[in-house]
Design goal:
Keywords: Methyltransferase, S-adenosyl-L-methionine, Transferase. This is Methyltransferase domain-containing protein. GO terms for molecular function: methyltransferase activity. It comes from Actinoplanes sandaracinus. This protein is of the alpha/beta class. It has one domain: Vaccinia Virus protein VP39 (Rossmann fold), CATH 3.40.50.150. Helix content is 44%, strand content 17%. The protein has twelve helices and seven strands. The protein has a seven-stranded mixed sheet with strand order 3-2-1-4-5-7-6, with helices on both faces. The protein is globular, with a radius of gyration of 19 Å. The relative contact order is 0.15. The mean pLDDT is 91.
Length: 299
């Protein structure tokens, strides 16, 4: 472990921070998945905007990010795809409709699976979509089961990314592709204790694991037996998610919705101005797209 990463982990630990267990993540989404989905226009992931002049809604921007991820997977009609951390099923539906793939969605949350199943049934897509409860750390599928794996903002909850990637590599067919998004540390960790505390409290509120760096995925992929194809920093395109979600959370709170108490506490201590995007500031934390494939030894 490099010095910078060691310092990062030490600072996290100084605030009594550790990654949530799968059971804790499941409990979080079982309790709050419906209200969280409302923050994101029916999804549970960031949006993608072309720039500060792009006035797309969070729903449109989130669908755009899903489309980008689907394109990275190069899915063909009839392919079998695993949606790892499917949430309420919206990306799986989009993938099935646009590619003709057979999609299996999994979530650690039984309530996510329930919502996703209702969505598939309402759209009469049961022949293409199925959902089940599963832990990404121990996937209940045979080796070489899937042509592609999508992990859209789900690996952020898992501290041992390399282990999860090994699970993904195991269930991928030779030549199969994986595309995921993760939260990353982009710049130096602030020496300001208030900023450190704010980051830790936000990660704890969302049951997220400690942040990684883009460069870490070289090692993660290597340990998993995957070939890393590309890593794309999309922080500048996804950062506009923050003012949208703040407004949505504030609206839900004023309507009397039950929010996670940690998020409600963060809202109580912040204003819309705190969540506003300052274009002159390069964010120290952000989002990356990672694309990799399983080698095909048959060739």
């Amino acid at each position: 472990m490099g010095l910078k990463k060691l310092l990062q982990r030490t600072r996290y630990h100084s605030w009594n921070f550790k990654a949530s267990t799968p059971a804790e993540v499941a409990e979080f989404y079982d309790q709050y998945n419906r209200v969280i989905a409302q923050f994101y226009g029916g999804n549970m992931h960031y949006g993608y905007w072309d720039g500060p002049d792009d006035d797309s809604s969070i729903e449109v921007a989130a669908a755009r990010l899903t489309e980008i991820m689907i394109d990275k997977l190069r899915i063909k009609p009839g392919d079998r795809v695993l949606d790892l951390g499917c949430g309420p099923g919206k990306p799986a539906v989009q993938m099935a409709k646009t590619t003709g793939a057979q999609v299996v969605g999994v979530s650690i949350s039984s309530k996510d699976v329930e919502l996703a199943g209702f969505r598939a049934e309402a759209l009469n897509l049961q022949d293409q979509l199925s959902f089940q409860v599963a832990d990404a750390n121990d996937l209940p599928f045979e080796p070489d089961s899937f042509d592609a794996v999508l992990a859209l903002e789900s690996i952020v909850h898992m501290e041992d990314r390399a282990h999860v990637l090994r699970q993904i590599a195991r269930v991928l067919k030779p030549g199969g592709r994986v595309a995921l998004t993760d939260f990353i540390q982009r710049g130096p960790i602030s020496d300001d204790e208030d900023e450190q505390r704010a980051l830790v409290e936000m990660l704890k509120a969302w049951r997220a694991a400690p942040l990684v760096e883009i460069e870490d995925y070289v090692e993660f992929a290597q340990h998993a037996g995957l070939i890393l194809d590309e890593t794309i920093d999309i922080t500048q395109q996804t950062k506009y998610t923050f003012p949208y979600t703040y407004a949505a959370m504030r609206d839900q709170l004023e309507r009397g919705a039950k929010l996670p108490p940690e998020l409600a506490a963060i809202l109580a201590d912040t204003t819309a101005e705190d969540w506003k995007i300052d274009e002159s500031v390069d964010p120290a934390e952000g989002v990356v797209i990672v694309v990799a494939h399983k080698p095909d030894q048959r060739r």
